[in-house]
Amino acid sequence: MTPPAAAAAAPYVPGIADAHQPATSSAPGWPLVLYFHHVNPTLRHYTALSPEEFRAGLTRVLREFDPYEPADLLAEGGPRRPGRPTVLVTFDDGYRDNLTHARPILAELGVRAVLFACTGLLGQRSDHPREDYLTGAECDLLASDGHLIGAHTSTHPHLDALPGDRARRECADSLDAVAARYGPGPARLFAYPYGGIPEDAGLPADVLAFGTVRSPAVPWTASPQAIRRTYLPAGAAGTWDGLVRHWRGQWEAAASAA
């Protein structure tokens, strides 16, 4: 067990701006929430890992954190706060390599994830992984494994740069598309593209909404529509062990103070 004092020494990842450093966990006492975009053997992106890296990184995380069941996000009365360190795995955008490369590794490790899909982009195909999206049927296949499909706007704009009515429409259209296909439960899950939170996204009060490292690490009950997520930085696997130990230390410190 990592002693609470370990939480004080935050690992610094070279080459990443201070505002995007991943060392701060999601919120004291709440699940660690990790976000990825791709699991792909050729792509380079700050949250894109090769299959080998994804397996190794997630295995390391699971030595300190139990998987958090996505279904617990939809519990009556709000998301369940576990009494042990847990990790919620999330993917953004709805890329096809989430199915082809991430899915078998998640199954191997016994992890179910939330996949936040840009509903207006589903079905678009390309030879470039950054423009190659899941189809609706492929989302259904992931849902059949126990993963949840959530909303991530329709077309992935910078919501905080849009006029209010357009930002609200992007959110509403995506939530409606998820509700039409998967029911009202998964439609209570949303993630902001780029982590930019508009002044008024128009999200229903019961929607749980996730940001990125741009969101503060506060209890989910205090800010249920700006939940902080963090990440395992691509190209910096040498920092992962220190990050995971630090995240565990933050959880232990919060548990000790409770």
How is the secondary structure organized here?
Layout: E1 32-36, E2 38-39, E3 48-49, H1 51-62, E4 66-67, E5 86-93, H2 97-109, E6 114-117, H3 136-144, E7 148-151, H4 164-182, E8 189-191, E9 208-210, H5 240-257
Parallel strand pairs: 1-5, 2-3, 4-5, 5-6, 6-7, 8-9
Helix pairs in contact: 1-2
What are the defining features of this structure?
258 residues; alpha/beta; TIM Barrel; 5-stranded parallel beta sheet; two-stranded parallel ribbon; 5 helices; 28% helix; globular; disordered N terminus; plasmid; hydrolase activity, acting on carbon-nitrogen (but not peptide) bonds; Polysacch_Deacetylase; Polysaccharide deacetylase family protein
Provide structural commentary:
With 258 residues, the protein is α/β, with parallel strands linked by helices. It has a single domain (4-257), classed as TIM Barrel (Alpha-Beta Barrel), CATH 3.20.20. 28% of the residues lie in helices and 13% in strands. The chain is built from 5 helices and 9 strands, in the order βββαββαβαβαββα. It has helices at 51-62, 97-109, 136-144, 164-182, 240-257, and strands at residues 32-36, 38-39, 48-49, 66-67, 86-93, 114-117, 148-151, 189-191, 208-210. The strands form 3 sheets. Strands 1, 4, 5, 6 and 7 form a 5-stranded parallel β-sheet that branches. Helix 1 (51-62) packs parallel to helix 2. The chain is globular.
Short overview:
It is found in: Secreted. By secondary structure, this protein is α/β, with parallel strands linked by helices. The chain is 28% helix and 13% strand.
Number of helices: 5
Mean pLDDT over all positions: 94
Unreliable residue runs:
1-8
Q: What structural class do you assign from the helix and strand content?
A: alpha/beta
Question: Given this structure, which CATH class is correct?
Answer: Alpha Beta
Total domain units: 1
Name given to the CATH architecture: Alpha-Beta Barrel
State Rg.
17 Å
Determine the oligomeric state from the structure: single chain
CATH level-4 homologous superfamily: Glycoside hydrolase/deacetylase
User: What name is given to the CATH topology?
Assistant: TIM Barrel
What letter string, H or E per element, gives the SSE order?
Answer: EEEHEEHEHEHEEH
